[in-house]
Write a structure and sequence with these properties.
6-stranded parallel sheet; single chain; alpha/beta; Response regulator transcription factor; 10 helices
Length: about 220
């Protein structure tokens, strides 16, 4: 079954370019386009896309407000925000608001395709430069860890994995850092998400920085 994709951007040239990127992929289907946030909310309700690629800055209703309406609706659509600049001031708020990730508009076509497939499969993503921006912002506003918070349920190794994920490391990089296999890291990430009641990797980054965990040093010695 094809992944249904909705394209949301006020610039026709951007929508046209994105459509061209996905038209050649047999497992991806562009089911519609929207020119602003209001259009997007309506299109999500009508077309039931699996993934929404949505611009941040748009007339009438911006991407952040549209995201809020989509997330609080009965739609199962997963939203990836598109931005021209990795320093967009909406990044921080959108991740807290339920976006599954951010992607730069100048990303290579293969990265766009991979991103949609990952998000459709339940993963989350951030462009590396956007990850650095998010981490910088969280570090600036981080609060002391709450000893009664949910992360008290995590093992020392799971805390290590969470801390490294919050720094923007991929599973392969976490595996290299902790001298374990990639499969082991994936298992730890899944357990962290389950224990903390988080939807995806992006929410894990948010949680870690909100609870002052990202800067801690690894102390565990085993799995």
């Amino acid at each position: 079954m094809s992944t249904r994709v909705l394209l949301v951007d006020d610039q026709v040239v951007i929508r046209y370019g994105l459509r061209l990127v996905f038209e050649g992929e047999p497992d991806l289907q562009v089911v519609g386009e929207a020119v602003d946030g209001l259009d997007a909310v309506d299109a999500v309700a009508r077309l039931r896309p699996d993934v929404v690629l949505m611009d941040v800055r748009m007339p009438r209703l911006d991407g952040l407000a549209a995201l809020s309406r989509i997330v609080t609706s009965d739609s199962a659509a997963r939203v990836v925000m598109l931005t021209t600049f990795d320093l967009d001031e909406y990044v921080f708020q959108a991740l807290r608001g339920g976006a599954c990730g951010f992607l730069l508009k100048d990303a290579p076509p293969e990265d766009m395709v991979s991103a949609v497939r990952l998000v459709a499969a339940g993963e989350a993503l951030l462009a590396p430069s956007v990850t650095r921006r998010v981490i910088t912002e969280f570090a600036r506003t981080a609060v002391p860890a709450d000893p009664d918070a949910r992360h008290g349920r995590l093992t020392p190794r799971e805390l290590d994995v969470l801390r490294l994920v919050a720094r923007g490391l991929t599973n392969d990089e976490v595996a290299a850092e902790l001298y374990v296999s990639r499969t082991t890291v994936k298992t730890h990430v899944a357990r962290v998400l389950a224990k903390l009641g988080l939807r995806d990797r992006v929410q894990a980054v948010v949680y870690a920085h909100e609870h002052g965990l990202a800067g801690r040093s690894a102390q565990s010695t085993g799995c």
